[in-house]
Amino acid sequence: MSKYVFEARMEVRDYECDIEGIVNNANYLHYTEHTRHLFLKECGLSFAQMHEKGVDAVVARMQLEYKAPLRCDDEFISRLWLEKDGIKYIFHQDIFRASDETMCFRGKIMLVCLVNGRLAESEDYDRAFAPYL
Asked: Among residues 1, 29, 3, 8, which one has the least CA distance to residue 78?
């Protein structure tokens, strides 16, 4: 059984590719961040509204593995599952080429919350993520 709790489909845009015709490595971070923001919306929270409340989820650490390249116009599926370790939310995010389910990217992204500028627990995030932990 899959641990994934959320997925988003996207398409590679031509300007995201480098001279070699493959997606530039930095764009995978954009894809994973966008996936987390979409997941947050599904959980009933807005990243912007949380910021206005003084609660900011920030990346503390990333472990990245590039497996196979995506190319211009490739459709891909960005999937995630998460766990919590102390005050850290750990997002396990994998990107698959849609046409053949080849894994292209694997990331482990650790986030922490700043509440009014200080490292702290967020009741809002804990409540929103509880069904997925």
From this structure: 8
Please tell me the distance from the alpha carbon of residue 17 to that of residue 24, in angstroms, as a whole number.
5
Mean pLDDT by 10 residues, the chain (133 residues): 90 96 96 96 92 95 98 97 96 98 98 96 95 93
pLDDT value of position 2:
76
Beta strands in 13-87 (DSSP E): 55-66, 75-85
Residue 22, beta-bridge partner list: 71
**Tokens standing for residue 61:** 């650490």
Q: What phi, psi does 50 have (nearest 5°)?
A: -65, -40
- Per the DSSP assignment, residues forming a β-bridge with 5 are none
CB proximity list for 56: less than 8 A, separation 6 or greater? 50, 113, 114
Residues 62/15, Cβ–Cβ less than 8 Å: no
CA distances, 102 to each of 27, 33, 69, 70, 98 (Å): 18, 20, 10, 10, 8
Distance CA 101, CA 113 (A): 33
